[in-house]
TrEMBL record:
GO terms for molecular function: hydrolase activity, hydrolyzing O-glycosyl compounds. The active site is at 345 (proton acceptor). This is Glucanase. It comes from the Eukaryota. It is an enzyme of class 3 (hydrolase). Residues 1-16 form the signal peptide. The keyword Signal applies. The keyword Hydrolase applies. Substrate binds at residues 83, 205, 244, 310. Belongs to the glycosyl hydrolase family 6. Its EC number is 3.2.1.-. Keywords: Carbohydrate metabolism, Cellulose degradation, Glycosidase, Hydrolase, Polysaccharide degradation, Signal. InterPro entries: Beta_cellobiohydrolase, Beta_cellobiohydrolase_sf.
Length: 392
């Protein structure tokens, strides 16, 4: 099949910049069959989520500083995941697939149909009963994926839910949340067990589930989901660092040299260690243990007052760009950008609807608009603070 070469033209400061992109639409690609016993990221590149890409291009247009604007344009081309958080957004997946997707690109989707932001006793916890979850999220998503057999997909399953289940397992009020997790997650894993998909089950990060006393419970819960979904071949392992984040490899961890003294009960204070330590526990219980690691906003370390400070962390920078991890950590498949940097985690205005206290804390960027809205100023912080630096 002849590859179609399109010229996408960007206008800025009156200059036309032509970017040659060899593009083949997925419709003309061969049928995809992903072998989840292998690291698919050695063959596939994360496709830039076109909605986020457009937000970044719009943001670039209003940047005055020419150098910073060039950096923003670079970020538009970085691969990123699409978040499926509302049932009304399912049709956006179809729109997304109208993008021209090269045959060697993989479309990333974060599935967040169950929602738990803080803990399962909080009113913010909205458990989604299986019938609604199936009808609103999983079945339509599986249908779309099945009707696009020539497109490769990587799906991160339900960030934030496992930490709730593990951390609050002894709270009677959390029993319904745990029950929901144990029915919904296996259903999702089984329904998405399709040849053109690899799935990664969210496993929080080293700061919440890396505690020595929680690692075994975490591995067991994952094994339970794996068994309950009939051990799906396409489940590759875990996704880490998406809801709240840590350093990849700062030693001993995100905070400082004395972190191991402050928290001797946590030996997984960076994600590199977390992937290794939890991975070993997963291997023991016979569950898949490879990982993708979200590095979208972890470029800068040592910014926070507390590990729990997850919201719009002030001074954050874009982190490592998506791609194969390589090197010594054989369990880590790839760095990915799950979170779209520049999209607000939540409003900093106390009293506004949806306000979470973490978004108003001293280490959170202010002002920040409500969750999901674009924050231009914060996006520019991420650009300036990006590590590695954005080469233009
Ligand atoms: C998948 O990869 C594994 C590991 O390389 C290999 O043993 C297996 O045969 C492959 N499966 C298929 C269906 O190609
Ligand atoms: C859960 O969140 C609510 C509201 O944010 C808070 O009041 C409560 O203390 C939290 N419970 C636990 C066990 O952390
Ligand atoms: C999962 O199934 C395997 C094989 O039947 C079994 O050995 C293991 O104990 C099960 N794990 C859990 C957590 O149920």
């Amino acid at each position: 099949m002849k590859p179609i070469v399109l010229l996408s033209v960007l206008f800025h400061h009156g200059q036309a910049v032509s970017v040659a992109r060899p593009l083949t639409s997925a419709a003309s690609c061969p049928t995809v069959s992903l072998n989840a016993s292998t690291n698919i990221w050695t063959q596939y590149t994360l496709h830039p989520n076109p909605f986020y890409r457009q937000q970044v291009l719009n943001a670039a247009k209003v940047i005055q500083d020419a150098d910073l604007q060039k950096k923003a344009l670079k970020i538009a081309d970085v691969g990123s995941f699409f978040w499926l958080s509302k049932s009304t957004e399912v049709e956006k997946v179809t729109t997304l697939l109208e993008d021209v997707i090269p045959c060697n690109h993989v479309v990333g989707i974060v599935l967040q149909g169950m929602y738990s932001q803080a803990n399962c006793t909080s009113p913010k916890y909205k458990s989604t009963e299986l019938a609604a979850y199936k009808a609103s999220f999983i079945d339509p998503l599986a249908t779309i994926i099945k009707s696009n057999p020539s497109t490769a997909f990587a799906v991160i399953v339900e960030p934030s839910t496992l930490p709730s289940v593990i951390i609050h397992s002894d709270l009677p009020s959390c029993a319904p949340a745990i029950e929901t997790y144990r029915t919904n997650i296996p259903y999702a894993l089984e329904a998405l067990n399709l040849p053109n998909v690899v799935t990664y089950l969210d496993a929080g990060h080293g700061g919440n589930l890396g505690w020595d006393k929680l690692q075994i419970a975490t591995a067991n819960e994952i094994a339970l989901a794996y068994n309950a979904s009939s051990r799906p071949s396409q489940l590759r392992g875990i996704a880490v660092n998406t809801a709240n984040w840590n350093s990849w490899d700062m030693s001993p961890g995100e905070f400082d040299q004395s972190a191991l003294e402050i928290w001797p009960e946590n030996h997984a204070q960076n994600e590199q260690r977390y992937v290794r330590l939890l991975g070993a526990k997963l291997a023991k219980v016979g569950a898949p243990n490879h990982a993708v690691v979200d590095t979208s906003r972890n470029g800068v370390q040592g910014l926070r007052y507390e590990w729990l400070d997850w919201c719009n962390v002030d001074g954050a920078g874009f982190g490592r760009r998506p791609g194969v991890v390589g090197g010594a950590n054989e369990l880590a498949d790839a760095f990915i950008w799950a979170v779209g940097g520049g999209i607000s985690d939540g409003t900093s205005e106390e009293g506004e609807e949806g306000y979470d206290e973490y978004c108003g804390k001293p280490g959170a960027y202010k002002p920040s608009p409500p969750r999901g809205q674009w924050n231009q100023a914060y996006f520019e912080v991420l650009l300036r603070e990006a590590r590695p630096y954005i080469q233009v």
